[in-house]
Amino acid sequence: MTFHDLPAVNATLNGLSAILLTLGFIAIKRGNKIAHRNCMISAFCTSAIFLACYLYYHFHAGRTTFPANWFRPIYLTILLTHTVLAVAIVPMILITLWRAKTERFELHKKIARWTWPLWMYVSVTGVVIYLLLYQIFPQK
Length: 140
Description:
Distance between the termini: 22 Å
Low-confidence stretches: none
CATH superfamily: Cytochrome c oxidase, subunit III, four-helix bundle
CATH architecture: Up-down Bundle
CATH class: Mainly Alpha
């Protein structure tokens, strides 16, 4: 693996996080609290590793740019919503996990109703951004 493989690694980590979030959601809907806990902790760890890799890559690679074409305004809209929600979701995730850890499950459920869909959106759009930037409209 080289430095230039990190965007693909990051997309994979985002995709894995989305899968774990989905499995955790299914588990809690089925009443399987242990599987739910394990999936959500795994999603958190996967997202934390993603964040470390992402920051490392962009610290060394600098800024990436999307080519000027007809799709650029759509890409920038996706990127803007992804970025804003990625920042907002961090404290929400920490609060949600803390409330579960301290067994304050009613408060946990209240915030999780917001945390889960936003976290899922950030994870999925992370993969979409990678596909748009590196696969569909690669930089020349």
